[in-house]
Each structure stands twice: as structure tokens, then as C-alpha cells.
């Protein structure tokens, strides 16, 4: 598939718009706080806990300490983990793929302990719990 000159120009314009909002000039892992600290060209620093980022939560300190910044400054790469993070995504609170983020939200929602959920669980337990699955023949 060939890329036309016009498509290339549009892609460059989109990248420049993202860079205008800020790009990474430095990044490091803070072991004590278990977070990635990213310094932007604007003087802003963002700190992101590693447990929130897809592909980083189970990594060792040694693996996390080696961070490469893409030439555009819009990406961070961990070569030992083969993990990548999009800097504009971090600024927007996007810490992974859509599928991974949805899974994280579902996990958090499943852990919620609202009064209504507790009451429903107790009622279900008093009536014998979850019904057994039946095999349809």
C-alpha cells in the first residue's frame, strides 16, 4: 500500500499538533515511588504509577529503568519489555489499549462494594446462591 504525498503531509501535521501540546524530553523510573516521571518540553512533569500502565505493572525495577524516548518525543519505549507508551495518551489519562483499559475498568467495577451490591449478594446467598448451570440436551 503506497502512501500519497497528501496523506504524508496530513500525518506530519497531526504529529506536529501533538508535539505542540508537549513532548517528552526526559523520562526515568522512580523505584521508591514505583512510578515513571516524564519531563515535557513545556516544563511540565507527569508522574504515572507503573501499575496503571499496560505492560509495565509486572516489570522489575531493572526492566523499568531503561526507557527510550522516540525521536519525535511522543513515545516512550522499554526495550527489555518491548512495551511502548504514547505520551499524548498519558496526558489524557490513557494508559493502554482500549481493550486493556476496558478490562481494568471492569475489574474495578467488579470490586465495588456499594450498599445495593452487598444487599443483592446477601439476598442471593440466603436463597441458595448462584443457580447451577444445566446442560441442555
Automatic annotation (TrEMBL):
Residues 123-137 have a biased composition (Basic residues). InterPro entries: DUF2442 (IPR018841). It comes from the Bacteria. Residues 111-122 have a biased composition (Low complexity). Pfam families: DUF2442. Residues 107-137 are annotated as: Disordered. This is DUF2442 domain-containing protein. It comes from Chelativorans intermedius. The lineage of its organism: Bacteria, Pseudomonadati, Pseudomonadota, Alphaproteobacteria, Hyphomicrobiales.
